[in-house]
Amino acid sequence: ETCYQFYKRSPSGVAPEIVQFRTGTNDFVIDAGAAHSLLRPEAVEAFYHLYRATGDERWRDYAWEVFKALRKWARVEGGGYANLKDVRWTREPSKNHDDRMESFFLSETMKYIYLMFVKEDPLPIDKYVLNTEAHPFPVVSSYTG
Fold first, then answer.
1. pLDDT of residue 54
2. Integer Rg of the chain from CA
3. What are the boundaries of the signal sequence (predicted)?
4. Catalytic positions, please?
């Protein structure tokens, strides 16, 4: 839930790179010096695993909201996506683009979002494990070492 709140409570709907929690509260602030976004995968990765483990549709709903915000604010005219200079910016999206897209955005962030919505999961969690770069490895039932 906390990861989704970073998206939901950001003016653009895209999570900032860093948030600061307020002491003694359940609240956080987006610091001006860390309001940029590299479009990292960790939150949607968590949504993916939670959805696959529980079947709870809210995780897919969260992933869809994140996708819509990314498409609206980070998508570059003509194709591709760009990091955001400031997630609090809600005017013309193209003026907020950093001329850069990290490789993990497509290989991880978008992969996890895609996997949330395919009709038949090509990577069932009882047969595959995803490493930290979202590469699938088959689960080996016994070690013959």
1. 94
2. 17
3. none
4. 17
Show me where the domains of the chain are located. 1-138
Q: Extract the tokens encoding 105.
A: 């955005």
């709907």: which residue's tokens?
13
Residue 106 contacts by C-beta under 8 Å, 6 or more apart in sequence?
81
CA within 13 Å, CB half, 140: 5
The two structure tokens encoding residue 67: 């996708």
Task: Give the mean pLDDT per block of 10 residues along the chain (145 residues).
Answer: 80 90 84 92 93 94 96 93 94 91 94 91 87 88 71
Distance of CA 47 to the CA centre of its chain: 8
Q: Is 132 annotated as a binding residue?
A: yes
Q: Which residues contact 14 (CB under 8 A, 6 or more apart)?
A: 7, 37, 39, 66, 69, 70, 73, 74, 84, 87
